[in-house]
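Let us practice reading a record.
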Amino acid sequence: MQKTRTILFLLFISAGVSLLAQRIIPAQKNGKWGYIDFYGNTVIPFTYEDARLFDSSYADVRLNGKWGTIDKRGKTIVPCKYNNEPEWYNGMTATASDNKWGVIDSTGREIVPLQFDTIIHTWYRINNLFVGKKDDKYCAYYKDKILLPLEYENLTVDYNCHIIACKNGKYGLVDSLGTTLIPFIYNDIDKWTYKGIYYLKTEKNITEYYNINTGQKMNRNEYNELSSFGYGYKVRSYDDCDIYVNREGVNVFNKRFHTARSFFWDITMVTDFDLSRYCIDTLGNKLFDLPEGFYLCNYYNNRFAKLANKKESLYGIVNKEGEQILKNEFQKILGWDNNCFSVCKDSLWGIYDNKGKLISHLYSEIGGFGDGMHAVRKDNKWGYMDTAYNEVVRPAYDDYTPFSEGLASVCRNGKWGYINKKGKIVIPFIYNEAGEFVDGTATVNYKGKYGIIDRRNRYKVPFEYEQIRKEKGAKYDNLEDIDLVMEWDRLYFKEEKIWQD
């Protein structure tokens, strides 16, 4: 049995070594870039002016000022003849040669001829739609097929992957097959759509609604009928009021409001005819009044409402019963885990529980998060707190990286070392730079040269490189990246004019 265990252990170690040997990363030596494995062996010679990490089987490199693509054997896949670094989507990228733009695939084949002044860059490229511009005229391609010839004054790909086009001063809509959906008779077409409904501007600047699903125009009431049902209700607007109706069209609360907001959560905000604002639940019951100038902008864990006064940049928290948890006096409030809140007042950040009690120290900044640890700054020094908001590493360092694989690199007196989650120094402060640990190794700079070390500070790649590019772990860069629901705030304030009286 012991012999079997030993054999299995040796096979496991051998497999790990083999995987590390297969992974190669770009490094710079004597001013040139090449590729090495995790033992410092040269895999692809140092001949390039720049080199990027491998994405699956291919990597982009620069030679003689031009970009191309190679495989892991160093074989040229796309010749180095293009001006710009590729940005690959679905195996294609917009690129330029001799200042003429087009689109190539991952073998270097031209999908869109390199003859344009520019290829319009939008994330819609993932759907294989490309817009070319030449001499102030526009055209559109779907992969290598011409959808619209080079004769349009403007082309925009919208969020449904349709093309809003302008020809002879009039706008129309074309799908990805080149079929005209909306005729070219309008002064403008808004690219923001809802359920296939487009907002059109006529010559008299009147807004019309066009449903491409039915191919017919709609009036305002028909448009309202297609609005979403939040919690089974939706807002129906009239000239003098808003009401909530169910799917049968019945006024469910038997109430009229000056303005009403859809149910994104199980509470929402309404404005009465005396212009007072308050929140109601899904039964139409009044929950609590909103202070003057404040709006409902977020709702955490179906319990806590975030109130905002955009003009004064003030925020507060109340519970569903209207009890004030955090006063309306904070410059920022972010939803946190464990029903807690990270808040900022007078440039100091702290964590408050759902009773409004401060449960952490106050810091000038709460920084990157990784591996269950938050970086915190106080008196211009960095430390760490855990997810229970205990300060486990006293702020004593000049700079930091987030924790990764149980270790974090920190800087003291211009030198970098590594600490564990108890604050114990496990790798001494001897490095000029020190990166995060990923898969048991980290890139460091020692006396001006880069190498790679393991968790025991053993050198895996010798210190003989000007640069080494190594994958980083997924980390939050700062506090606000953690609170994804902040997007709701931005969305709401973008449309705040809809709710203002």
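A brief commentary: Residues 1-85 form one domain.
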